[in-house]
Design a protein that fits this description.
Blueprint lengths: L10 E2 L1 H5 L7 E7 L4 E5 H17 L7 E5 L4 H13 L2 E5 L5 H11 L3 E5 L1 E4 L2 E4 L1 H10 L5 E5 L9 H4 L9 E3 L15 E2 L3 E6 L9 E5 H15 L7 E4 L6 H7 L7 E6 L9 H8 L4 E5 H9 L17 E5 L5 H11 L4 E4 L1 E3 L4 E5 L13 E2 L5 E5 L2 E2 L4 E6 L9 E2 L6 H7 L7 E9 L5 E6 L13 H8 L5 E11 L2 E10 L7 H14 L8 E4 L13 H8 L28
Parallel strand pairs: 2-15, 4-5, 4-6, 6-9, 9-10, 14-15, 14-16, 16-17, 17-18, 29-30
Antiparallel strand pairs: 1-11, 2-3, 7-8, 12-13, 13-25, 19-20, 20-21, 22-23, 22-24, 24-26, 26-27, 28-29
Helix pairs in contact: 2-3, 4-5
């Protein structure tokens, strides 16, 4: 490890596994923020993929070619992925909230032959046209031979307004709904276990995004394990994860088709038109497995959303709640069981884009312990290293000590595996280091304390940022926080930035309340030396706060790629702060 080979000589096709069922059971229910709902059966899904495969083949797409998606979380995006995989081509996607530069930095590295795109989308009550961005991306990437526009915001998008402005521009673009075929069956390319399935991207907040290549066999096998064994997904289940196709949880969700369940797709704001909108969705569509982020649960808690006391929220079908994106605070466990549902399996899960799956996650036959992730992934030799040795009850590095099938094939375009080794194997020889600061508990559960590269070291004592976030979350006046270590007088001091509720002020009383809450539940070393109010907290497009970018700003270093952020303008609030000069 790395370099281990799995199931040499085996042949499979990811799309064929996802389309193993071709009956009249619902494969997908799509709901948009605008209220549009569509249902697709497994029989209909197969025919949609047949048509899309023929379209791609008519455009000359073949095994190994790259197909890009600049798409919403809708059925056509899944169809395009499956059609791409059926041929043996490689899929890669970005959500429409990515700006032109962010999409270009990703897709230009992989040189796609075809790009699927929507014309626009709705978010938080606004209509956002993206055709200009679609045109700009396609014009800058010479490898793109055809842009296939899926009408999404408008039933009749005006393609001439941009593509018609360049010579032969209209020859480069077509509408997805204008392609017809009389084909009713398709063939599935039988490919090696480690044949590339899709390319995902690192966040890119510290430089150009890394293009992480994942195998069809590794992704399929790992997802089937996590769905069927760790989450107990069956055909009658309705599986939902709030995600865009720019986050790995979308890829994870799609593979639910291989278990024959019904995928619930939602595109739009999770809080529009009301804070409880997704819980109403879960009620109306009888969702049994509800996936979201730790930040979403914390926001619902702060907003005092009470689904179990709301007549619109009948969650009798809900069996499991999955949470990822950041560590789930112990208080969020309390909130779920007290105010959402008392008999639900709450599974905090953690893994990442690096493995397009989880290292640690839920287990239907083990208890849920407050503040802990239930178990290590089956078949994964996950441990926590302290000084290079496995340890229980101590904080250290989350590692995997033996090869596993869903390890990336490598990084796209690299002649050798230098960056791949640096990313995962530079800490410990022949051992995968995930970059998480964690603890394996006496109950054989896991607690994640934050990213290793964001660990605070005041006085030489290692403190995970999540240890502080868990306490700040208890303070009602604070909506969200971000913590860094500032180099100060030959040491490191903890600086806490807080975003407050509207109308609240960071006065001496509130500062004292925050510090007391932290001290009473941790140690004096955890208490921030500086607490500063800011109007917004910078985060990636998938919603993760970016501690390293803020740390760089505070120390006067360059943030190399602000296009990886959902709100790059927020970085200005951390620049040249007088409070940090003394």
């Amino acid at each position: 490890m790395p370099g281990a080979k799995w199931f040499s000589g085996a042949r499979l096709n990811y799309a064929e596994n996802c389309l193993r069922y071709r009956d009249d059971r619902l494969a997908m229910i799509f709901r948009s923020e605008g209220g549009v709902q569509r249902e697709v059966t497994y029989r209909e899904l197969y025919q949609m993929v047949v048509r899309c495969q023929h379209l791609l083949q008519s455009l000359g797409v073949k095994e190994g070619d790259r197909v890009a998606g600049y798409m919403a979380n809708c059925p056509e995006t899944i169809v395009a992925l499956l059609a791409t995989a059926s041929i043996g081509a490689i899929w890669s996607s970005c959500s429409p909230d990515f700006g032109v530069k962010g999409v270009f930095e990703r897709f230009d590295q992989i040189q796609p032959k075809v790009m699927f795109a929507i014309d626009g989308y709705r978010y938080a009550g606004s209509k956002i046209d993206v055709l200009e961005s679609v045109y700009s991306v396609s014009a800058r990437i010479s490898s793109i031979e055809k842009v296939i526009v899926v009408p999404f915001l408008s039933p009749d998008p005006d393609l001439t307004s941009y593509f018609g402005l360049q010579e032969n521009g209209m020859d480069k673009v077509m509408r997805y709904d204008e392609f017809n075929t009389d084909r009713s069956e398709m063939t599935f390319a039988q490919l090696p276990f480690d044949h590339p399935l899709y390319i995902l991207y690192s966040s890119g907040t510290t430089g150009e995004p890394k293009c992480i290549v994942h195998s069809a066999g590794g992704s399929l096998l790992q997802h089937l394990k996590e769905h069927q064994l760790h989450t107990d997904v069956h055909r009658e289940d309705r599986l939902f994860y709030f995600s865009t196709c720019g986050w790995m949880m979308w890829n994870w969700l799609v593979t639910g088709l291989a278990s024959g369940c019904t995928l619930i797709l939602y595109d739009g704001s999770p809080f529009h038109p009301k804070r409880k909108s997704l819980w109403v969705l879960a009620s109306e569509l009888k969702i049994s497995v509800f996936g979201t982020s730790a930040r979403y649960i914390a926001t619902c808690k702060k907003a005092r959303v009470r689904p179990n006391q709301d007549e619109e929220c009948d969650l009798s079908s809900l069996r499991a709640i999955l949470s990822t994106g950041s560590p789930l605070a112990a208080e969020s466990f309390d909130y779920v069981y007290e105010h959402i549902k008392s008999d639900v399996m709450l599974s905090s899960i953690s893994g990442g884009t690096d493995i397009v799956s989880c290292f640690v996650l839920g287990c239907p036959v083990r208890p849920v312990h407050r503040g802990q992730i239930q178990t290590r992934g089956l078949g994964l030799a996950v441990d926590v290293y302290v000084d290079g040795e496995a340890a229980i009850g101590q904080r250290g590095e989350l590692v995997c000590t033996k090869p596993f099938p869903c390890m990336p094939i490598g990084f796209w375009g690299e002649v050798d595996d230098t960056r791949y080794h640096e990313a995962y194997f530079s800490r410990f020889e022949n051992v995968w280091a995930q970059g998480d600061y964690a603890e394996r508990t006496a109950q054989d559960g896991l607690v994640i304390y934050g990213r290793s590269d964001a660990v605070l070291n005041p006085g030489g004592v290692r403190i995970g940022t999540a240890e502080i976030y868990r306490q700040v979350e208890k303070v009602d006046e604070v909506l969200e926080s971000l913590c860094i270590g500032q180099i100060w007088k030959d040491d490191v001091r903890i600086v806490l930035f807080v975003m407050l509720r509207p109308g609240k002020e960071l006065n001496d009383e509130l500062i004292s309340k925050i510090r007391t809450t932290i001290q009473n539940n941790t140690t004096r070393r955890h208490i921030p030396k500086k607490i500063i109010a800011v109007p917004d907290i910078p985060r990636t497009l998938s919603g993760k706060i970016v501690e390293l970018a803020v740390r760089n700003i505070v120390h006067g270093d360059e943030v190399k790629n602000t296009d990886a952020l959902a709100n790059p303008e927020s970085l200005a609030y951390f620049t040249d702060l007088d409070e940090l000069k003394n």
